[in-house]
């Protein structure tokens, strides 16, 4: 056995900053930095205690062992002082024995370890839960360990597919375990904290949206700015290439209409859900409006009133497959064989023959996509 000195503890300031984050945010903070797997241990390594509020943060002490041998784990367990350290064990993914149970867990808690992580199996799950001590493993196995004095302590290891060096930052939570290399901690923390601020803003935006919706007030924009930037870039590209766009605007009329007025693209508003007044200016701008199975639903008056003001040459029928099956198939899988039911409902409302509506809308679809020249006929 080779046993090296314990690494220096990470500064308290680092530990406190890490405690305000979580494994997912720290993993996000490592994106693009060239760190193996963004420091994310494989998904099978999860908390033994299912309490989602339990968190583990500390400085890595590493143990290498194999074949269910827990002698090196015993040695590291009784090394004092251990306050502030997390024991990270490379168990070589050995599946046939538990490396330790609640006795070693209890000893590690007693000497001050902040938690334990193993690329292997543990036992005595209930005891671990009752002592309220963070332990992460691949699962439970009742067969006990062996002791053959093999292994290394405080040497570089692989655990859960991640390189772990003594002194690294180890953070565990309900999602699993993330390891931050000691020499990259500051840049990772800064990026993770930036992501946390972004998520706080998104949470606030979602809360404001839900409140406005509950109070029946105009809905604020819910999409994050990067989504709007991407949409705007796509609208610009469609104009440059003279290609039709297909947009599904759901509870985002204000934002969507602002962009449509700005770029005036040609194309389709899929599953149109706006008002008749909006349908008039949208079609005047050259857009086609699509209506699907929802137009046959009992509460579809808004859609039907909108369809009445759409110029015949800009009206489309669609399925939104596999969703929005028309009555009498509502709730079942939708497909193009059911579009006749949507056509029948709209034909009755528009007072035109069903076959004529089907012919017209098929010609409209070919025209908007530039598939062939069609004679639109009359309605």
Silhouette: elongated
Low-pLDDT runs: none
| CATH A-level architecture of the largest domain | 3-Layer(bba) Sandwich
Sheet bearing the most strands, described? Answer: 9 strands, mixed
What are the secondary-structure elements, in order, as H or E?
Answer: EHHEEHEEHEEHEEEEEEHHEHEHEHEHH
Average the pLDDT over all residues and give the rounded result.
94
- Give the number of DSSP strands: 17
Structural class per helix/strand content? alpha/beta
Give the count of helical stretches. 12
Instruction: Could you tell me the CATH topology label of the largest domain.
Output: Glucose Oxidase, domain 1
- How large, in whole angstroms, is the Cα Rg? 31 Å
State the share of residues found in helices, binned by percent.
25-40%
Descriptors:
379 residues, alpha/beta, TIM Barrel, 9-stranded mixed β-sheet, 12 helices, 37% helix, 17% strand, elongated
Q: How would you explain this protein's 3D organization?
A:
- The chain is α/β, with parallel strands linked by helices and 379 residues long.
- It has helices at 12-19, 23-29, 71-77, 102-111, 125-131, 185-214, 225-241, 253-263, 276-284, 301-309, 339-350, 354-368, and strands at residues 2-3, 46-47, 56-64, 85-90, 98-100, 115-118, 121-122, 135-137, 152-153, 157-159, 162-164, 169-173, 176-180, 245-248, 267-270, 288-291, 315-317.
- The protein has two domains: 2-195, Ribonuclease E inhibitor RraA/RraA-like (Glucose Oxidase, domain 1, 3-Layer(bba) Sandwich), CATH 3.50.30; 225-368, Alpha-Beta Barrel (TIM Barrel), CATH 3.20.20.140.
- It is 37% helix and 17% strand.
- The strands form four sheets. Strands 1, 2, 3, 4, 6, 8, 9, 12 and 13 form a nine-stranded mixed beta sheet that branches. The chain has a four-stranded parallel beta sheet with strand order 14-15-16-17. The chain has a two-stranded parallel sheet with strand order 5-7.
- Helix 2 (23-29) crosses helix 6, helix 9 packs parallel to helix 10 and helix 11 crosses helix 12.
- It is elongated and about 85 Å long.
- The protein starts with a strand and ends in an 11-residue tail after the last helix.
């Amino acid at each position: 056995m080779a046993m090296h000195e314990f690494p220096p503890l990470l500064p308290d300031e680092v530990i406190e900053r890490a405690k305000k984050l979580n494994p997912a945010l720290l993993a996000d903070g490592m994106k693009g930095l060239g760190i193996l797997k963004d420091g994310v241990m494989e998904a099978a390594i999860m908390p033994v205690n299912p309490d989602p509020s339990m968190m583990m943060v500390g400085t890595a002490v590493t143990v290498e062992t194999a074949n269910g041998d827990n002698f090196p784990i015993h040695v590291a367990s009784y090394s004092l002082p251990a306050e502030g350290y997390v024991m990270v064990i490379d168990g070589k993914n050995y599946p046939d024995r538990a490396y330790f149970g609640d006795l070693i867990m209890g000893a590690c808690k007693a000497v001050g370890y902040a938690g334990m992580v193993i690329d292997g199996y543990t036992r005595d799950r209930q005891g671990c839960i009752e002592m309220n001590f963070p332990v992460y493993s691949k699962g439970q196995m009742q067969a006990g360990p062996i002791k053959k004095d093999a292994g290394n302590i405080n040497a570089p290891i692989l655990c859960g597919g991640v390189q772990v060096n003594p002194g690294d930052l180890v953070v565990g939570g309900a999602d699993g375990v993330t390891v931050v290399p000691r020499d990259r901690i500051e840049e990772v923390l800064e990026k993770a904290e930036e992501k946390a601020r972004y998520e706080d803003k998104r949470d606030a935006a979602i809360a404001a949206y839900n409140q406005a919706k509950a109070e029946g007030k105009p809905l604020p924009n819910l999409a994050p700015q990067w989504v709007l930037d991407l949409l705007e870039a796509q609208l610009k590209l469609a104009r440059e290439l003279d290609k039709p766009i297909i947009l599904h605007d759901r509870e985002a009329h204000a934002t969507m209409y602002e962009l449509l007025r700005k770029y005036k693209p040609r194309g389709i508003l899929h599953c149109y859900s706006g008002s008749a007044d909006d349908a008039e200016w949208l079609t005047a701008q050259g857009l086609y409006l699509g209506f699907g199975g929802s137009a046959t639903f009992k509460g579809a008056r808004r859609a039907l009133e909108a369809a009445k003001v759409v110029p015949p040459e800009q009206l489309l029928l669609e399925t939104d497959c596999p969703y929005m099956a028309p009555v009498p198939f509502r709730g079942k899988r939708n497909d193009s064989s059911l579009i006749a039911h949507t056509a029948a409902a709209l034909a009755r409302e528009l007072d035109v023959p069903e076959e004529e509506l089907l012919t017209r809308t098929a010609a409209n679809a070919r025209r908007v996509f530039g598939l062939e020249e069609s004679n639109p006929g009359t309605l």
